[in-house]
Amino acid sequence: MVAVKRTASSCYWETAIRELCRARDLRPWLEEDAGKLWVCLVLILCGGAAYGASLGIWRAPLQAVFVAIKFPLLLLLTALGTALINGMLAQLLHAPIRFRQSLLAVLMSFALLALLLASFTPLIGFLLWHLPSMASKGQAEAHRIFLLANVAIIAFSGTLANLQLYSLLQQISGKSAGQILGVWLAMNLFLGAQLSWNLRPFFGTPELPVSFLRADPLNGSFYEAVFLLAQRSVL
Question: What residue spans define the domains of the chain?
Fold first, then answer.
């Protein structure tokens, strides 16, 4: 009896992951019980932790542990903020989508993002194997390469995850799908960038000690740092 239950449970998860990756006929997910919500949360936690560990391991094993905790938290906080904005936008656009549906739809996109990022961890391992170590003279160059490579991976995976679920938005919101997707992507970028600034470090700076958070996590903003960096570059 126990073996049958385990088999049924594994089949449920396998089917759910396949449906999510194919992004076909996902509208029933928004109407079912809490099972699909747990699928999304587990995928975000596991996939985010796997990718987060790959981000921090170059700096130090302890940094990998820290980022494995923080990266899923970053995904969940960004998803919650985006869902709140989407829920309000849907009301303004008179789209037939409730907050629960908006939250689950956003969590579905982030679950797919976590799966995509987790699939990149072998590639990250290959890159780390060929990069100069932290103790070498080329650590600064290695840090820049590693940072840019992961920014590209996250941007690619995030865009693909959101576009993959565009058909779902069309089914539940009709002509408003394009506007909602645009705001969805903008809020992911806006919230994700700022929250990543508050939760830094993720990659770990070579000249700074390993830490869970910076000493002043709420000081400044991502956009202020980008502006100052651009200003220094021009001058």
Answer: 29-234
